[in-house]
């Protein structure tokens, strides 16, 4: 089998790897319908996160179950399934509380940019669609594996409710799907922060009512002026830098909430500023497993079409081109088909 392997900064190769097989009785092996490149894959690609020798990469996946271990009860070969980037048992106290990405037995699925992938803890991790979906629905279903579930969690963690005012920091795929999520949850006003025309247009299509092009202190001032000097009820932080986190906190009204899902890189917060801000913070790696049944239903019924976030589709063997297109911001998000 050939799949993606990252060797170092800006060095992703499509090369021979061992094909996955059942190792534990709770495993499943999936034949990939489609996979994709995540914004977080760009951290090692850009050399910001260290790489410990050549490593398989990719954590977003969906496809047809090829084989299951003898202890698997809830999924079976032939079913089309979607799972989270963290496999989870879905039975421990953290899973039962809805935080499957803090499962006591979580396992990262980190080698998904490949034609096949092994998923541990299959019963707790995978959710099957009602039937094998039509090909055109696959991109939207794939987003539920991470990016859409993460945008959804950002909105939920920011306590988005009907009628509220929401601001979204970050115009990557997660931020754009955060806009879609806020709209789906009934937000009245959604301020998307973006300076790129194509991303602004998609944000509007997903439900943004206002676009703010300024960043940092100027971005905060724009959100303040759009909200009568108070700040937004809910702010989604979808980047993970010091600037974006501070921008999110300062754009939130006293008593409001920040949902942060950008993986923090070098973020340090000032306790005294937080204390006097009266802002709630909640975030982390999105427990997408919790949202999968509901989000599959919304896609299946045609209520949401998050697959629109893919603006580049390549055969899997062109994975390196997919990375450079996202790195250079020529693409929002790259879909890869085996
Ligand atoms: Zn668990």
Brief digest:
With 338 residues, this protein is of the alpha/beta class.
Number of contiguous helices: 12
Name the beta content range.
Answer: 25-35%
Percentage of residues in helical conformation:
25-40%
Report the order of strands and helices. EEEHEEEEHEEHEHHEHEHEHEHEHEHEHE
Radius of gyration: 19 Å
How many E strands?
A: 18
Unreliable spans are none
Heteromolecules bound: zinc ion
Average pLDDT over all residues: 97
Which structural class is indicated by helix and strand composition? alpha/beta
What is the straight-line distance between the termini? 11 Å
**Biggest β-sheet description:** 7 strands, mixed
**Which of globular, elongated, flat, extended, rod-shaped describes the shape?**
globular
Describe this structure in words.
The protein is of the alpha/beta class. Helices cover 30% and strands 26% of the residues. The chain is built from twelve helices and 18 strands. Strands 3, 5, 6, 9, 10, 17 and 18 form a seven-stranded mixed sheet that branches. α5 crosses α11 and α8 runs parallel beside α9. The longest helix has 13 residues. The chain is globular. The protein starts with a strand and ends with a strand. 53% of the residues are buried. The mean pLDDT is 97.
């Amino acid at each position: 089998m050939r799949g993606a392997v990252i060797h170092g900064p800006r060095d992703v190769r499509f090369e021979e790897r061992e094909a996955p097989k059942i190792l534990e009785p709770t495993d499943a092996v999936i034949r990939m319908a489609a996979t994709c490149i995540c914004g977080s894959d760009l951290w090692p690609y850009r050399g910001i996160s260290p790489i410990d020798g050549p490593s398989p990469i990719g954590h977003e996946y969906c496809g047809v179950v090829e084989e299951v271990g003898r202890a698997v009860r809830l999924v079976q070969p032939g079913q089309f399934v979607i799972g989270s980037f963290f496999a989870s048992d879905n039975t421990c106290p953290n899973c039962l509380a809805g935080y499957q990405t803090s499962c006591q037995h979580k396992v990262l699925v980190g080698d998904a940019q490949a034609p096949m992938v092994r998923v541990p803890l299959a019963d707790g991790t995978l959710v099957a669609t009602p039937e094998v979906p039509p090909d055109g629905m696959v991109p939207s279903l794939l987003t539920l594996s991470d990016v859409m579930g993460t945008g959804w969690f950002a909105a939920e963690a920011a306590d988005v409710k009907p009628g509220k005012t929401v601001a979204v920091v970050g115009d990557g795929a997660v931020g754009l799907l955060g806009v879609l999520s806020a709209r789906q949850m009934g937000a009245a006003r959604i301020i998307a922060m973006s300076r790129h025309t194509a991303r602004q247009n998609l944000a509007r299509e997903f439900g943004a009512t206002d676009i703010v092009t300024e960043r940092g202190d100027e971005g905060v001032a724009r959100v303040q002026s759009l909200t009568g000097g108070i700040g937004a009820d809910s702010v989604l932080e979808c980047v993970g830098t010091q600037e974006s986190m501070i921008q999110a906190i300062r754009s939130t009204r006293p008593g409001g909430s920040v949902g942060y899902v950008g993986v923090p890189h070098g973020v340090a917060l000032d306790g005294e500023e937080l204390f006097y801000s009266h802002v709630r913070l909640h975030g982390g790696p999105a427990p997408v497993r919790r949202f999968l049944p509901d989000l599959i239903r919304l896609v299946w019924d045609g209520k949401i079409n998050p697959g629109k976030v893919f603006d580049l589709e390549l055969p899997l063997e062109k994975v390196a081109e997919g990375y450079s297109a996202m790195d250079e911001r020529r693409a929002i998000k790259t879909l890869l088909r085996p």
